[in-house]
Each structure stands twice: as structure tokens, then as C-alpha cells.
Amino acid sequence: MNNDGHKLAVLTYPNYYGETFNVEEVIKSLHQLNIPVLIDEAHGAHFGLQGFPDSTLNYQADYVVQSFHKTLPALTMGSVLYIHKNAPYRENIIEYLSYFQTSSPSYLIMASLESAAQFYKTYDSTVFFDKRAQLIECLEKKGLKCFKLMIR
């Protein structure tokens, strides 16, 4: 397999339903072909916490976009773009971002991103899974069937 002039691979991880795949191997394979990788990790900002899959930030993806507001306590539209220090086009992206960014940013959203990042750093996953177990037990007592979390 060769590059055939491809400039960038864009992957969604996880998908909208939370499903994952062996993204580490895909990133490695694309990098062997000298194809940079952008990961749309919009629904995976919580990845990397105990009990969840690793974030693609751990797999040398060149660019990772996370929507903190979807799975972390941030205001709507609170999203971040991570650019790996060795990513190609790094300087171009930083320059182009300045063309699209507003001169009137929302300081509330920026503060909520900082707060969400702190929440992530200090989060205790056991609290989440304890509450989840209590909810499942309550729902099952009412006759509802619950799907179990499966991590590969």
C-alpha cells in the first residue's frame, strides 16, 4: 500500500454510538505511509479516564478534536483542537485558525473549558461506575433490561 498523494486521513473515534476500533494500529499504519491523521474524538473527551478506552492523544495522532461539552462539564460549543508538536501543517493550522477565530471570544466558554480540563484531571471514575451500578439495579428492578458496558 502506498500514499498515492493523500494529504490527511480523518477518522471518527468513537462513533456517535460510542463504538470503538483499534485506532492505534490504524494511526500507526497511516503514519508508516506518511499520511497525517486527524481524529474527530468529539464523543470521546472522557476517554483516558479509568474504565474507558484510551484517548487517541496517547497514540501520536497529529490532530485531535474533542467536544468537551458532549462528555465533560463544559458549556455548549466548548471544544478543543490538540496539535501534536511534530504534526505536519502545524504552523499553517495555527495561522489559519487566526483567520476564523472571533475577535470577541466567549470567556464563559473558555472558562468552562478550563474547568472541564480540571474536572478531567481530578475525576474519580469509581463514583461514576458506582452510580451507574445503582441506576442499573433500580431499572432492572422495574423490569427494564440494561446493556452492559463492554471495553475491548
Number of helices: 5
Shape-level CATH architecture: 3-Layer(aba) Sandwich
Q: Numbering strands along the chain, what is their spatial order in the largest sheet? A: 1-2-3-4
Order of helices and strands: EHEEHEHHH
How many angstroms does the end-to-end distance come to? 28 Å
Cα Rg: 18 Å
Q: Overall pLDDT, averaged? A: 92
Largest sheet: 4 strands, mixed
Shape designation? globular
Structure class: alpha/beta
Beta-strand content estimate: 5-15%
Give the uncertain stretches in residue-range form.
none
Q: How many domains would you count in the coordinates? A: 1
CATH class: Alpha Beta
Q: How would you portray this structure in words?
A:
- With 152 residues, the protein is an alpha/beta fold.
- It has a single domain (9-141), classed as Aspartate Aminotransferase, domain 2 (3-Layer(aba) Sandwich), CATH 3.40.640.
- The protein has helices at 23-32, 68-71, 90-100, 107-122, 125-141, and strands spanning 9-12, 37-40, 63-67, 79-83.
- It has a four-stranded mixed β-sheet.
- The mean pLDDT is 92.
- Residues 5-122 form the Orn/Lys/Arg decarboxylases family 1 pyridoxal-P attachment site domain.
- Its EC number is 4.1.1.19.
- InterPro entries: Orn/Lys/Arg_deCO2ase_major_dom, Orn_Lys_Arg_decarboxylase-I, PyrdxlP-dep_Trfase, PyrdxlP-dep_Trfase_major.
- It holds the Pfam family OKR_DC_1.
- It comes from Staphylococcus aureus.
Keywords:
152 residues, alpha/beta, Aspartate Aminotransferase, domain 2, 4 strands
